[in-house]
Amino acid sequence: MTSANTPTPRQLFTVLLAGSLVLLVVHGLGRFIYTPLLPYLVADNQFNAPDGAAVATWNYLGYLMGAMLAIRWHRIDQIRLMLPLFLAVHVVTTLIVTQTDQLTVISVTRWLNGVANGVVFVQAPALILEWLVMRNRASLSGLVYIGVGVGLLVSSGLVTGPASLLEGAERWWPAALLSIPLAWWGAMQLRQLEVPVRQHDDAGKAVVNTPLLDRASIPLFLSYAGAGLGYILPMTFLPLLAKLELPEGHALLDGTWVIVALFTIPAPWLWNKLGALMGDLPALRLNFLIQLAGVLATVVWPGALGLVLCAALVGSTFLGTVLLTQRIGRALHPHQGPRLSAAMVALYGFTQMVGPWLTKQWLDAGGTLVSAFGIGVAALAFGLVFAFFVPRPEAWHARS
């Protein structure tokens, strides 16, 4: 897009907008639209709640596999090819689920949609981060995740707005139609970014990747695993929990997802700012504490109060966990770039897949959905503990 070392504000805006839009497509219209859709699909008798949890698990399995593919396809030339391809996969799979009520077909299609989500969610921010680093604008990297927050709000409107007009598989049509132009424009912009295929040091020698796992990064990976398992329960089942706990016609039946979306939109800017002011690592620990309080609220105060607190506190933190952890990891392992991002997202994806699966086992065994949120509480506590074992990057690199 530009060969200049100092990009113009317009160029920065275009790049960040393109990244935000592709994340809006694959995460907002691909993954998270399923959360507000789930109560409607259950009410339409497309499937029951345990089967709905199984469909979510298939999607998260695909996300994990997509992130693992991104570890393999981490070079810039590969990203330029794979990013548009998997955005097309997202569009096609979303169109397919508009045409079927068969649980097996839905599960397979949502799995493939998850693969596309995993690849794009790794490759788009990683490509943009490398482009920004080359232009001394790495501190702006977290702003690309604003697209996820906007996607939550858009997904809520696409589900609740036409809710009385659509039924069953038809409910996917708004997401499918909006995905097409956004995916196309975002892909075309990102393919034009000028980023070297391989990084080189000051002497012109190609940089060799260092090991991903060591005494510094292992606690960070474990902490991130706790985050993935902890946040995915409310982000999958909060509207369904509201439907189970609140009377018919209550404003929070759809309102919990709107609250999540509204608090998610400014979250990347907020945690970007807090990371700059207090350091990424202290900000990450604070982030875990707030997120833990949010999930705990649904267990301690069942009903409207717990639902609102969970929606607000989780919505305002989970993207901060992502962007802070990614930046800390890159600071601990410079020159890893997309490969590091892919490894972390793969781990995150695995724990997200485990969450709905554990929930299904718990529900099948006679447990309640609100008590299943205790799994998320324990996972976030686990993540918080290990966040205190991650060294400061500057101290790690200064060790003798």
Describe the structure.
By secondary structure, the protein is mainly alpha-helical. The chain has one domain (9-191, 214-398): Growth Hormone, Chain: A, CATH 1.20.1250.20. Helices cover 75% and strands 0% of the residues. Helix 10 (267-278) crosses helix 11 and helix 14 runs antiparallel to helix 15 (369-387).
The stretches of 5 or more residues where confidence is low (pLDDT under 50) are 200-204
Under CATH, the homologous superfamily reads: MFS general substrate transporter like domains
Strand content: under 5%
Question: What count of domains describes the coordinates?
Answer: 1
Class based on secondary structure composition and strand pairing:
mainly alpha
Distance between the termini: 42 Å
Q: How would you characterize the largest beta sheet?
A: none
Series of H and E elements: HHHHHHHHHHHHHHHH
- Name of the CATH architecture: Up-down Bundle
The CATH first-level class comes to Mainly Alpha
The CATH topology is given as: Growth Hormone, Chain: A
Shape: globular
Please count the helical segments.
16
The overall pLDDT average reads: 86
| Approximate helicity band | over 70%
Radius of gyration over C-alpha positions, nearest whole angstrom: 20 Å
Q: How many strands in all?
A: 0
Keywords: Membrane, Transmembrane, Transmembrane helix
GO molecular function: transmembrane transporter activity
Pfam family, one: MFS_4
Membrane topology: Multi-pass membrane protein
